[in-house]
Amino acid sequence: MVIDHKLNSFADGDALAAALASTVAERLGTACKERGSAVLAVSGGTTPARYFKALSHKRLPWTNITITLIDERYVPPTSDRSNEKLVRELLLQNEAADANFVGLYNPAPNVEQGAKLASEAIGRLGRPFDVSVLGMGNDGHTASFFPGGDHLAAAIAPDQTAPVLPMQAEGAGEPRLTLTLPMIAGSRFVALHIEGAAKKEVLDAALGEGSALDMPIRAVLRYEPIELEIFWAP
Ligand SMILES: O=C(O)[C@H](O)[C@@H](O)[C@H](O)[C@H](O)COP(=O)(O)O
């Protein structure tokens, strides 16, 4: 198995945020020039805050750009756990206030039905997405592909046709909605954004042999074909 992804290393998180925002902006700008519009899928969690702020100041034809989520905790957008809330507060600001936003959360009676509604909304965006930005947890999860997740095998199946699946797992906290592997890894460009020595060690382990069910980030790292770059700072 040959896994050879470009690793971009930075002195600190600020330098990484600036470079990642520029890379994403350049890809979105090119997509708008070539195809008239662009779709960007972003992750939540704690790591994206700085590049969200940097990206929000980029001058782009934001009215032609749609931002969506890689995954979502199944909580209303008023919750501090909501990725939609994070994106609205940090990314859909400044220049990027004009961007379109399509979230994953909807107040369906349960997360299974929520996934169906979210699949319809995501399906309307068309594929492939132009850019997907992933994070990673210390357990090797990415998106809401959690080890032990009740729909993990289906979500990381390369031939999965559903855009969104529900996910419940011990390490996940609340139930989640997640884009499936082909939606994410089939994007024209995928960035994996990780910070800290511990996550670098997890990544190095994930690049070795072993099952994607144990370290689900492997499903992305091993997807073919994929254009993936890693952005890392200590
Ligand atoms: O909603 C989420 O939790 C995510 O999209 C998730 O996949 C995240 O990227 C990782 O858990 C890393 O999270 P941190 O950046 O908080 O370490």
UniProtKB/TrEMBL annotation:
**What CDD domains does its record include?**
6PGL
Q: Which InterPro entries match?
A: 6-phosphogluconolactonase_DevB (IPR005900), 6PGL (IPR039104), Glc/Gal-6P_isomerase (IPR006148), NagB/RpiA_transferase-like (IPR037171)
The protein's UniProt keywords, in alphabetical order, are: Hydrolase
Reactions performed catalytically: 6-phospho-D-glucono-1,5-lactone + H2O = 6-phospho-D-gluconate + H(+)
State whether keyword rRNA-binding applies. Answer: no
Tell me a GO biological process for this protein.
pentose-phosphate shunt
- GO MF annotation, one: 6-phosphogluconolactonase activity
On the tree of life, the source organism's domain of life is: Bacteria
- Residues in domain Glucosamine/galactosamine-6-phosphate isomerase? 12-221
SUPFAM superfamilies xrefs: NagB/RpiA/CoA transferase-like
What EC number(s) does its UniProt record assign? 3.1.1.31
Mind telling me which PANTHER family this protein's record contains?
6-PHOSPHOGLUCONOLACTONASE (PTHR11054)
Query: Of which family is this protein a member?
Result: Belongs to the glucosamine/galactosamine-6-phosphate isomerase family. 6-phosphogluconolactonase subfamily.
**Function text:** Hydrolysis of 6-phosphogluconolactone to 6-phosphogluconate.
Q: What NCBIfam families does the database record attribute to this sequence?
A: pgl
**Protein name per Swiss-Prot or TrEMBL:** 6-phosphogluconolactonase
Q: Which organism is this protein's natural source?
A: Phyllobacterium pellucidum
Q: Which gene encodes it?
A: pgl
